[in-house]
Every structure is written in structure tokens, then in C-alpha cells.
Amino acid sequence: MDHHVDLFVIGAGSGGVRAARIAAGYGARVMVAEEYRVGGTCVIRGCVPKKLLVYAARFSDEFEDAAGYGWTLDKPAFEWAKLIANKDREIARLEAAYVTNLERAKVTLVRSRAKIEDANTVCLLANGDRVRADTILIATGAAPALGAEIAGLQHVISSNEAFHLKDLPARILIQGGGYIAVEFAGIFHGLGSQVILVYRGENILRGFDDDVREHLRSEMAKRGITIITKQTVDAVEKVEHGLCVELSDRKSFVVDQVMFATGRRPNISDLGLDAAGVQIAKTGGIAVDEFSRTSVANIYAVGDVTNRVNLTPVAIREGHAFADTVFGGRPTAVDHTDVPTAVFSEPELGVIGLTEAVARERLAKVDIYKTSFRPMKMSLAGRDTRAFFKLVVDGETGRVVGCHIVGPDAGEMIQLAGIAVKMKATKADFDNVIAVHPTAAEELVTLREKAVSYQREAAE
Ligand code: NDP
What we know:
- Helix content is 32%, strand content 25%.
- By secondary structure, the protein is an alpha/beta fold.
- The chain has 3 domains: 3-143 and 265-326, FAD/NAD(P)-binding domain, CATH 3.50.50; 153-262, FAD/NAD(P)-binding domain (3-Layer(bba) Sandwich); 341-451, FAD/NAD-linked reductase, C-terminal dimerisation domain (Enolase-like, domain 1), CATH 3.30.390.30.
- Strands 1, 2, 3, 4, 5, 6 and 17 form a 7-stranded mixed β-sheet that branches.
- Strand 10, helix 7 (210-223) and strand 11 form a beta-alpha-beta unit.
- The radius of gyration is 24 Å and the shape is globular.
- The chain starts with a strand and ends in a 5-residue tail after the last strand.
- The structure holds NADPH dihydro-nicotinamide-adenine-dinucleotide phosphate (NDP).
- NADPH dihydro-nicotinamide-adenine-dinucleotide phosphate binds next to helix 6 and strand 18.
């Protein structure tokens, strides 16, 4: 053996880095292998660069809205290349900060792909070194899945490439109806592209509350994004002035870029999982228990590679809990219920807890409170857009079991409202708080009238 460590982490993304640092803090000798850039999906080609592009895209509305507030501006001009260069510089800075933090924590970082040879041995493919590890943590994340092989799939990009396009596409077609599809639809539209969103189901954002889905869809359409549902992309062909996309109903469109945001697949291939006996769950992720332990006693897995709740803060929490459990002597299971989440679409979504549909399945009595209104800032701006707030309440206990917000700063709001929901606050607790006026968030504490109330009929 060339090295011996207490913990070997495969993947220096959000979950792996957190686990490595916390474990090292407990005194463990830790080595992390990363084959690409330190920071993982979130920092390098996910949440962070995405949010920077979202900020960029939102200026187009700001410029327009300023006129109603008395500002006169020359026609704003946008330079995609400058945005991408500035974004790349910021990502490089963050990556360097991640490396520094690992060094400070005395974690050894190796730039190599790693492969498990048996439950206690990892091979560094870059130089062939073998590492003996008492514990192995797999934190390799996930990668875009482009779906079935169709004609012309080689012309299709994923979100990975969208961050590095040479030019802003004048016309883009995005397939998918999830987080990434709606976020990038808003980004490209805000920056000036013509956007067509193609989704195979009835309505975008399956799994979100139906009112939220409908509200977002109508707001996106109002902004000028073409949303085509119940269709898939069947073929993509290079033509003289772009790419010709054929849909399942045989309609076709010529665009400059085609992006698929059709989900992500856990990175499990060529890791040596079979050799070690690590089992895969039906979800396609590595099977783990509540402490993130795999079917092999000393091998753990956290983050998207386990395909549980695929969000950065969840991976971080899982990585931290793993380190507490294995190296801190404090067995810590991660609670995956009531995870607040934001979708940085335009407008933004912030949600936590149960949708109305799920609440009605699970609870005997459900009360719904909701409102839709034009945010105050839009009055002078003259923009036709509405915000939406909804509380799903357990009618028997009064507990707020779901909170759904569509509108500016919904992500910020749901982080705070999430504390109350997680603390099991009741609707009466919400109402007991005096409103902050004039804000949009005050709707959370001023929803007086039940929109609808459901009661399950007693079984005969
Ligand atoms: P999602 O799982 O959210 O959405 C995938 C979409 O693609 C769904 O609408 C799905 O349809 C559709 N789809 C899947 N397979 C096909 C196919 N073969 N043909 C046509 N359509 C298909 O994945 P994303 O790629 O958008 O994002 C991956 C994950 O990353 C998210 O689930 C989320 O956990 C995370 N993420 C979080 C963000 C945030 O926190 N703001 C931002 C971006 C990503 P259907 O609904 O019918 O299954």
C-alpha cells in the first residue's frame, strides 16, 4: 500500500468536501480524490453559476420597469461573452477557496479518478497508487441524462454545456419540465433568446403543487416563453441556419441550440462498486440506510449519487451527519422531510412541505388558504405579473403542513417560512405575527379566508 488513511472520499463536491472537513476536524486522516474541478456540480456547473446567470437575466425586466419609476435609459446592450468570462472568474475563485479550506482542514486532495478495489482499498488511476482506507465515502454526484438515443442527439447540449456556449443562442428549444428546464428557460428568455420549452407531461414541474405549476406556467407564457406540453423531441437535424427539431406530433422548429434537461443519473459507473459489494437501489442510486451507510459496513455514500433528495444543502447535511456518525461518535440520521426548496425560474418558486394533493391523500381534513396578487413594485412598472401564496393546513391540528410561494424573492421567503413549518407552527401561530408592511411576505400572516376545505368521508 502506498498510503493509509482513516477516510477516503471519492468526489470533492458539496457532500464530499463537507464530510472530509468535518471528519478531519475530529482528527481523522482524510484523503479526497477529485478527477475534475473541486466544488462539484453546485459550484462548478450548477447552483452557483446558474444563479449568476439568473441575476444577469433579471436585469432586462429591471431596465424596462425603471421607466415607470421615472428613469430614462439608453437601450441596454448585453454581452454574453463578458457575462460568461466574469462568471468563470468567480467560479475559479470559489474553487480556489474550496481547495484552501480543504488544505486548512489538513485534508489531502488528490487530482485523480479513484476506483474501489475492495472494501478497504482504493486505486488512484492517475498514478496507480493504492490507498488503504478504513472508511470509504462515495460522493460522486450525478450527471445529466439525455434520455433515449434519438436521431441527432449529438447536437443536443445539457446544462453542462449551456454554461460555456460561445454565443447566446437567438433561439433555443429546451426539453424537460423540471428544475433545470424552467430555470434555463427563464435565463435564456431574460437574456434575449426566443425560448421554446417542450415537456412530455400535462404540465411542468411534476411533483410540485398543482396551483404553483399552473401559476408558473401562465406567468412564463405571459412573458413570451412558448410552452409545448404532451410532446417529446423525436429528432434533431443540422440544417443550414440552425438545428431543425422534430417533435412527436411531427411539428418542427428551427432553433440555434437544443438543450435537454431531462433529469440526472447518479455517477456509479466504473467505481468498482461490484468488486466491493456495494448495492444499487431501485432508484438507480447507491442504496444506503439513514446514516448513509451502504450494504458494505465501512463504505458510505452521500449526495446525488444516492438519489434521495437531490439538493446541495441536503448533500452537505448528509456529509456532515456521516462525519458526526463515524468520526464524531454521534450517530446522526438526516431528516429528509420538509426540505425547503427554491426554483430560480422567472418568477421564482419557494416551497416546503406537502402539496394540496398529497395533503388530501394523507390527512383527514385539509384547509387551503391562497391568494394571487400583483406585487406592489409592478404597479408603477406596469408589468402584468402576479405573485401567488398558498398555505396547506392540517384541518384537525391547525398545523401548516405546506407553504408554496411564486414571486420575487420566493427563495428567500421560503427559507424563513421553512423554520416555522419545520417547528410545526399552526395557522394560528402564523396569524399571531404582525405583518411587515408593505411587503409580499405579509401575505403569509394575513391569509384570513379559507379558499377551500376538504374532509375525508368516514369509512362505512
Ligand atoms: P428533474 O428530475 O427535475 O426534471 C426532469 C424533467 O425531464 C422532468 O420534467 C421529466 O418529465 C423530464 N424527462 C425525463 N426523462 C425524459 C425523457 N426521456 N423525455 C422527455 N422528458 C423527460 O431533473 P432536472 O434535470 O431538471 O434537475 C435534476 C435535479 O437537480 C432536480 O430534480 C433537482 O433535484 C436538482 N436541481 C435543483 C435546483 C434547485 O434547487 N434550484 C436547480 C437545478 C437542479 P416527468 O416529469 O414526466 O418525469
